[in-house]
Amino acid sequence: MNKETLKENLREIPDFPIPGILFYDVTTLFKNPKCLQEMLDHLYELYKDKGITKVVGIESRGFIMGAALAARLGAGFIMARKPGKLPAEVVEETYAKEYGTDTIQIHKDAIAPDDVVLLHDDLLATGGTMAATHRLVQRCGAKQTFINFIIELKELNGRKAFPEGVEVETLLAL
């Protein structure tokens, strides 16, 4: 994977969503067919031999690569969403994030005890959203979990949000 090509195609937006935040916009990577294919190919190579049975994508940018990767791996895809978006019975976690608190939900029956689950999102900052999603997947009884992001903001130390022994991979560390 050509990380420089990905970095060159990544848009940076200062003061979004609030003043003082530098937002990394992955939509520019998704609209570029070469970047999209490189990311998907690299993710597939990372996880093709891990026995992944389900991929959980976090609302909303995690849905894009998460669903594509699930299809490529022959796995099911699960959406982790904000409250009120899923129609069946849910489990949820409330968590702190960079600028407030939020809640994430998945369907209660989304994960089975024999599932090997890959959790995917676009960005690792403080790790709150992913840590909450990881707790949900664990509560549902997943046999094993892996965590993946497209971008990691290293200075925020988001990896500390996850239990030791959980494999965390990122495509770009900034």
Give an account of the 3D structure.
There is one protein chain. With 174 residues, the protein is an alpha/beta fold. The protein is 29% helix and 34% strand. The chain has five helices and nine strands; from the N terminus they run αββααβαββββαββ. Helix 3 (33-47) packs across helix 4. The two termini are 16 Å apart. The model has no long low-confidence stretch (mean pLDDT 95).
Mean pLDDT: 95
Based on secondary structure, the structural category is: alpha/beta
What is the helix/strand order? HEEHHEHEEEEHEE
Binned, the helix content reads 25-40%
Using the alpha-carbon principal axes, give the shape: globular
Rg, rounded, reads 15 Å
Per DSSP, the total helix count is 5
Low-confidence segments: none
- In total, the number of strands is 9
Distance between the termini: 16 Å
Task: Going across the biggest sheet, name each strand in turn.
Answer: 4-3-7-8-9
Q: Tell me about the biggest sheet?
A: 5 strands, parallel
Beta-strand content bin = 25-35%
Short overview:
With 174 residues, the chain is of the alpha/beta class. The protein contains five helices and nine strands. The strands form three sheets. A five-stranded parallel sheet has the order 4-3-7-8-9, with helices on both faces. Strands 1-2 form a two-stranded antiparallel ribbon.
